[in-house]
Amino acid sequence: MESNDFQMNEWLVSNNIPVFCILTKCDYISKNEIPKKIKDIPGINNLLAQVLLVHHNGRPDLFKEKGAKYTDSELADLIKKTEDPIFVYEDDDGTIIGHCFCQTVVHEERPATYAYKSLYIDDLCIDENARGKHIGKALYDYTKQFAKENGYYNLTLHAWECNPNAVGFYK
User: Fold this and answer.
1) What is the mean pLDDT of residues 121-149?
2) Buried b (16+ CB within 10 A) or exposed e, 124-135
3) Has residue 108 got a pLDDT over 70?
4) What one-character-per-residue DSSP string does 7-76 give?
5) Is 137 exposed, middle or buried (0-12, 13-18, 19+ CB in 10 A)?
6) How far apart are the first and last CA of the chain?
7) What does residue 77 show for φ and ψ, rounded to 5 degrees?
8) How far apart are CA 39 and CA 57, in angstroms?
9) Phi/psi-derived region of residue 52, left when phi > 0, alpha when psi is between -120 and 50, beta in every other case
10) 128 secondary structure, DSSP code
11) Who's near 46: CB < 8 A, 6+ residues apart?
């Protein structure tokens, strides 16, 4: 990424324009272009189903074997949200092979702490057929840089202990 890409990101975020970044060709969507990105929902759903299966295999007491984390309508709304970026990695054919869903968490000032803004990684997934190619690292590094360049105090996430690949990735 060139430094002007991050300046563009900062400008877009400060002007409430959704950031939906495709790492093979960074693409910042204006309100008029959002419908074009809705076509990415099936690819995102495919990755979300893979995540669900990993979680089900590790914690069948909590996670169903099949289902959807979001409806298509909910995903469309998430893509439109200005404060919660979604980063997507596409292969050369335009197939989504990785995503990173983030949420902005604002911590208000308290008697013992200052106010700060965190970027929480809600979901980072690489297609099972594309793992081992450093795509996860690229998405994570991009997200980390995005947080730095956009005034977030920290980047946080949770990894289930029953997902040793995820735990190992973040160590």
Assistant:
1) 89
2) bbbbeeeeeeeb
3) yes
4) HHHHHHHHTT---EEETTS--PPPGGGHHHHGGGHHHHHHHHHHHHHHHHHH-TTTS-SS--SS-HHHHH
5) exposed
6) 25
7) -65, -40
8) 29
9) alpha
10) T
11) 96, 127
Place of tokens 């795509």: 135
Give the up-direction half-sphere exposure of residue 15: CA atoms within 13 A in the CB hemisphere: 11
Residue 157 identity:
L
**Best CA proximity match to 40, nearest among 70, 6, 15, 7:** 70
Query: Once rounded to an integer, what is the mean pLDDT over residues 43-57?
Result: 91
Pair of tokens at residue 61? 């007491």
For the chain, give the number of residues. 171
- Please state the φ and ψ torsions of residue 54, each to the nearest 5 degrees: -60, -45
Q: Which long-range contacts (CB under 8 A, 24 or more apart) does 49-54 make?
A: 50/125, 50/127, 50/128, 51/123, 51/125, 54/163, 54/166
> Given the DSSP bridges, would you call strands 116-126 and 86-90 parallel, antiparallel or unpaired?
unpaired
- Distances in Å between the Cα of 48 and the Cα atoms of 12, 65, 120, 138, 164 are 27, 12, 17, 19, 18
Higher pLDDT, 15 or 152: 152
